[in-house]
């Protein structure tokens, strides 16, 4: 197996220890996200994914002023110190990519292709996940570390109000990234024989 694509696939990991330095210019970060938004596929070419990128001070605002108070309001008092420590780790990164789906695009497909109406919400989730994966892998290929978080829907309204995001967009995940300040944890693999089945191979 050759090429840089699988090098990037293999070296993408979850990295929690991040510093708030960047490893490439912001314009390059924007270009990576632009290219992913343009070229990652979507079901029936719906292009239902929306992406919000928060860098530097805006990233810190997200974690310190929005996520922390939202989590503190619902966390049991004894759980808050460890939650706060975890959230400090995310705030300590350089940026966050927030992945949304626009339900208007999903509804339009449901109207147009009634036969698959019940499938489009699921395919919208798949579409969003493909964007998450492409951007996660691409940012790490550039030398960033990143991890994927899910504080939605707790934080959706505040984010919409702060960065002028339509309330109806559905937030799916938050990819935190920054300069790696630690290594990925050890990862174990289930036997491939339990997970992969090939029939009809000729050579
Ligand atoms: C769909 C999905 C959801 C995930 N959600 C979270 C999450 O909410 N918080 C977190 O810290 N990691 C999350 N992760 C990261 C996984 O725990 C991680 O990818 C997995 O343990 C494999 O490790 P690796 O990313 O280093 O390969 C998620 C990963 C995927 C693919």
UniProtKB/TrEMBL annotation:
Annotated Nitroreductase domain ranges read 9-179
Origin, by domain of life?
Eukaryota
UniProt-listed Gene3D superfamilies: NADH Oxidase
This chain's protein is named: Nitroreductase
Q: Which lineage is the organism of this entry classified under, starting from the top rank?
A: Eukaryota, Fungi, Dikarya, Ascomycota, Pezizomycotina
